[in-house]
Write a structure and sequence with these properties.
This protein is α/β, with parallel strands linked by helices. It contains 17 helices and eleven strands. The strands form three sheets. The chain has a seven-stranded mixed beta sheet with strand order 5-2-1-6-7-11-10, sandwiched between helices. The chain has a two-stranded antiparallel sheet with strand order 3-4. A two-stranded antiparallel ribbon has the order 8-9. It starts with about 30 loop residues before the first helix and ends in a 12-residue tail after the last strand.
Length: about 425
C-alpha cells in the first residue's frame, strides 16, 4: 500500500474554515491534512522540527505548531511571511478585544491615505484616471489608513493580529479580487461602491474569527514557530529538521509577487515600484514576467532531456520565447533547494513535496518526474510519486495539441506528491544463507 494512500488532494479550500488558517486565505496553499498525514507517517519525536522552505501563508508551520511540534519556514515574500507569523501569534481574548476597539476608533478617523494618488490604488491616481479602474475607493483606503495607524498603539502580538485583520478587511472591500494569475475586477464593482462602512463590517468579521480562534491550546504552547525572510535557494534554518512538507511555486508562469502587490503596498513592505521589481527578481524562476539571470545547469536526467528536446522544437509557437530558459532555470533553482535541504536533514528525515505538471506549446512538462530525478542526484532517496488529483488547466488549444483530438477532451495536468527520504526505507533485513 502506498504511503500516500488516503492523503487528501492538495486543495486549500477547507482552510477557509479551519481555525487560524482562515485568518488569511491563500488560494495557492495546500491542505493542512497533508501535513498531518506526513506527521503521522513520520512518527516524530517530542520537540521535532518541521520545516517548509516555501512557507507561503504558513500552512506547514502552523499545522506543526498546532500538533505540538516546532514549525520552521523560509519565505521570500515579506507579506506572506507576515501572514504566516501572524497565524502563529497568540493573544488573550480580553487584550485582543481592547486592541480591536482602538483599531475601530482609528477606522472612523477618515484620514487621507498616501496610496490614494499612487498608481491604480484609488480613483485619484493618475493611472486610474487613464484606465477608468482602481483597486480601492478612497473611502475604503481612508478607513484602512486610520485603522492601520491605530494598530501602532497596540502591544506587539496584538499589533500583528490587528494589522493582518485590517489588510484582510481592505481586500474584502477592494474592487478587484485574485483570479488565477491576476487581479480581476469584481462584477458590478462600480455599482457596489464599497465604502468605509464595508471596510468596518469586514474588519468586524475578521475580528470575530480571530477572537474565536485565539485561545492558546496546550499543543501550541509546547512547540514554537518561526519564519525567516529569505530565499531558500541560498539560506536554510540553523536547526536540522525531522520532516519537511512544502509546495514550491508551480512551473506555470505565475508571478505570486505581482498578484499580492496590493497587500505588499498596504502593509508597507514595499513602497515603490522599483522595490517591487527587486523583490520579483528574488523569487524562484517560475515565470517570465521579470528579468533573471540565465540558467547554466542542465544535467537533470532523461525525463528533462526528452521534454526540453520537444519544447525547443516548439519555441517559435510559444507565447514567450524565454519559456524553455524559464523551465531550465526552474529546475536549476529546485536542484539548489534539494541540495540545501539535504544539508539540513536529520538521518531519519523525509520530504513531502506537492507539485503540479505544466504544459507549453503542446508539450507537457512532467515536473513531478523531473524533480524526483533531480532529488536523487542531490542525495535523496525516492520513496514514491503519487497523483493527488487531476487538473484541467490546459487551454483548449493546448488540449488539442497534446491529445491530437478534435473532441477537446484531455489531457489533464496532475497535482502530485513526491516523498523523499534521507536514507532508504528497507522493508526487512535480508536473510543469511
Amino acid at each position: 500500500m502506498s504511503t500516500a494512500d488516503k492523503v487528501p488532494n492538495a486543495s486549500a479550500l477547507e482552510t477557509a474554515k479551519e481555525s487560524r488558517h482562515r485568518w488569511y486565505y491563500f488560494k495557492e496553499a495546500f491542505s493542512p491534512e497533508i501535513v498531518r498525514h506526513a506527521i503521522s507517517d513520520a512518527t516524530l519525536p517530542e520537540g521535532a522540527v518541521i520545516y517548509d522552505p516555501f512557507s507561503g501563508s504558513g500552512t506547514t508551520v502552523l499545522t506543526a505548531l498546532q500538533g505540538g511540534f516546532n514549525g520552521r519556514g523560509t519565505e521570500v515574500n515579506p507579506f506572506l511571511r507576515f501572514v504566516a507569523s501572524a497565524k502563529t501569534t497568540n493573544s488573550r481574548q480580553t487584550k485582543l478585544t481592547s486592541a480591536f476597539d482602538r483599531v475601530f476608533e482609528g477606522a472612523r478617523s477618515n484620514a487621507l491615505h498616501p496610496l490614494e494618488r499612487f498608481s491604480t490604488f484609488s480613483e485619484l491616481g493618475e493611472a486610474s484616471q487613464k484606465r477608468g479602474k482602481w483597486l480601492f475607493n478612497s473611502s475604503v483606503l481612508r478607513a484602512f489608513g486610520g485603522a492601520w495607524a491605530a494598530t501602532a498603539l497596540n502591544d506587539p502580538a496584538e499589533r500583528t493580529l490587528t494589522q493582518l485583520a485590517a489588510i484582510a478587511a481592505a481586500m474584502d472591500a477592494a474592487n478587484a479580487e485574485k483570479d488565477g494569475k491576476c487581479l480581476r475586477f469584481k462584477q458590478s464593482w462600480e455599482e457596489t461602491r464599497y465604502s468605509h462602512t464595508d471596510f468596518r463590517n469586514a474588519l468586524e468579521r475578521r475580528r470575530d474569527e480571530m477572537l474565536a480562534d485565539c485561545l492558546e491550546t496546550e499543543a501550541m504552547r509546547s512547540g514554537s514557530a518561526s519564519i525567516q525572510l529569505g530565499d531558500s535557494r541560498g539560506i536554510m534554518p540553523n536547526e536540522n529538521f525531522d520532516l519537511c512538507v512544502t509546495s514550491p511555486p508551480y512551473l506555470n508562469s505565475f508571478d505570486y509577487t505581482d498578484v499580492y502587490r496590493p497587500e505588499l503596498f498596504l502593509s508597507g513592505f514595499v513602497k515603490t515600484m522599483e522595490e517591487l521589481t527587486t523583490l520579483r527578481t528574488m523569487t524562484l524562476r517560475s515565470h517570465v514576467q521579470t528579468k533573471w539571470s540565465s540558467p547554466l545547469a542542465s544535467d537533470f536526467g532523461q525525463h528533462y532531456d526528452e521534454t526540453m528536446s520537444r519544447l525547443d522544437a516548439e519555441r517559435d509557437h510559444l507565447w514567450n520565447r524565454r519559456i524553455p530558459e524559464m523551465v531550465q532555470a526552474y529546475f536549476e533553482d529546485m536542484s539548489s533547494v534539494f541540495l540545501n535541504l539535504r544539508s539540513k536533514a536529520k538521518q531519519s528525515a523525509s520530504v513531502w513535496l506537492v507539485v503540479s505538471t505544466s504544459a507549453y506549446g503542446g508539450v507537457e512538462i512532467p515536473v513531478d518526474l523531473i524533480l524526483a530525478d533531480i532529488a536523487g542526484r542531490n542525495g535523496w532517496f525516492l520513496r514514491e510519486v503519487t497523483v493527488l488529483r487531476y487538473l484541467r488547466r490546459v487551454s483548449g488549444q493546448q488540449w488539442h495539441k497534446l491529445n491530437n483530438a478534435s473532441d477537446g477532451e484531455g489531457p489533464y495536468l496532475r497535482e502530485s506528491l513526491i516523498i523523499l527520504d534521507a536514507k532508504p526505507r528497507l522493508k526487512g533485513k535480508a536473510k543469511r544463507g
